[in-house]
Amino acid sequence: MTSDTATDLASAIGQHLPYLRRYARALTGSQTSGDLYAAATLEAILEDNSIFSGDVSPKTALFKAFHLIWSSAGAPIDEEEGGIRAKAQGHLKALTSNTREALLLQTIEEFHVDEIAQIMQINTSEVEELIGIANAEMESSVTGRVLVIEDEAIIAMDIESIVSTLGHEVLGVARTRDGAVSMGKKERPDLILADIQLADNSSGVDAVNDLLSHFGDIPVIFITAFPERLLTGERPEPAFLISKPYNEEQVRSAVSQAMFFSSTETLHV
Fold first, then answer.
1. What CATH number should be reported for the domain holding residue 37?
2. pLDDT tens column, 172-204
3. 7 with 113, same domain?
4. Residue where one domain finishes, among candidates 78, 104, 139
5. Which residue range(s) make up the domain with 157?
6. Euclidean distance between CA atoms 208 and 230, whole angstroms
7. How far is Cα 161 from Cα 198, in angstroms, rounded to an integer?
8. Number of folded domains in the chain?
9. What's the start-to-end Cα distance of the chain, in Å?
10. pLDDT digits (tens, 9 = 90+) for 233-244
11. pTM of the model
12. What's the number of CA atoms in the CB half-sphere (13 Å) around residue 216?
């Protein structure tokens, strides 16, 4: 490989790495575990980058390299852990193999079915079948109370509608940090879905941290127009992240995934 080719490859990987982190975190329910899988993928590519020599796009090749590691690594979380993540392991055992992967690749990472087939090394009809099974299994497995933190009324109404159709109860919609904390403390939510920037220039991240410090482990999904800022791997960051503008399937998928897992550590942005 020439130096120019190596530079081009490094640039291509760097461009897509934040989104590989997002995908890996969603699969494991943890920033730490997800980022370790992403790092292991990079180490494998350094040893053998032949996966990038075919006719697939660099992003597809990167996710395919990840899946070669993921599929041989065993259980995604530690069964010895307590709390939400231990319960999640039991739920995951009941799901059909490879369904969550196919669903996340389609809805959150927005790969086409033929690209997912290349990543997972299966045929397109199997991908479509897995996605159908995933939607049915994930959405029927866990329901709970959801707190929405969003200052834009139309977006808040849209999210509330999507969450409700999944069978969850929306505890309320908060527009500011103080409002979110007050609302959340009245009744403990099972999931928090939060925008980053709120109406009074307060922070959704701060609101979430306040509630996590009060309650402990609660799954959290953040919505942001700048997801790469929360996918650096350099500090505590979210495990579940939706990019603006989003579509309904992305919200449905993220909510179903997040209900299986705890969020990450307290965030600092």
1. 1.20.140.160
2. 999 999 999 999 999 999 999 999 989 888 889
3. yes
4. 139
5. 142-258
6. 15
7. 20
8. 2
9. 38
10. 877 787 789 999
11. 0.79
12. 4
